Structures are given as C-alpha cells and as structure tokens.
Please model this.
Amino acid sequence: MANDEKLFYGIGEVSEILQLKAYVLRYWETEFKKLNPQKSFTGQRTYRVRDIQVALTIKKLLYDDKYTIAGAVQKLDELDSKGELVAFPTGSAAPALAPVEVTSHPVVAPDAAPIETQTNKPKVDTQKVKDLKSLVEATKKLLKKYNLS
Model:
C-alpha cells in the first residue's frame, strides 16, 4: 500500500477526515442505507475507502449543495444507479485516501546534456504485502469453510 492508505479506518479517523462529529456519522448510517460500514467482531465500525467516499458525498450534498436528507437520499440513489457515486466527491480529504504519483521531468542545464532526475516511487514493504496475502488466503479459507463464498 502506498503512503498512509489503509484498508479500514475507525470512526474517529473518519470523523477527523470529514471534520464531523462521530455521532453525525452514526446518525447518517440510520438515514442513508448507502453508508453502511462493516463492524468488527468487537462491534466497532470499520470504514473502507468507499464508505468514506459515500460519506464525503453525503456531506457535500447536505452542507454544500443544501439538500434535505430526503433529497440527498434520492440523489445518492440516482448517482449510484449511474455508477457515479464513488467518483462524485473530489475534495478536501482525497489526498489522505489516494496515493499521489510524483512524476519527474528532465532538467536541462545551459550548454550541457540533459540530466535525468529520479522518479519518486513509493517503497513497497514486502513483509506487509506477504502479511496481506496470507490474510486474504486465510479469509478465503474461512469463507469456504462456512460456505459464505
């Protein structure tokens, strides 16, 4: 995974990203069926990036576009049916959720040959990749064992 991107975020992290109180997110879950974070075995909400994007869309509709809750529910359904729900919010929290690619351009000095600069690529932690792969395999086995796949 690149930079700070994670698979799951807690409600505290999401409330910081969205600059909202946690109780607002919990309330939105009751009003907007599209906002449905998973819960861990301990009952804590675990938000995926898609859940955060849906919450960003809800925030934009309610606070910026001044929709009512009922209107925002309809607009979310409309966006979802068009396949535009995830791509809709492009804004303040996007850098925290998406990796940023850094490109480089050749630097040319006067009367000299071009000097190439290195592209800054994120370093991959191979141990984290191995851990993630083993977690995915273990999850697949559990799903198969309980006929949930």
Q: What stands out?
A: Strands lie at 38-39, 45-46.
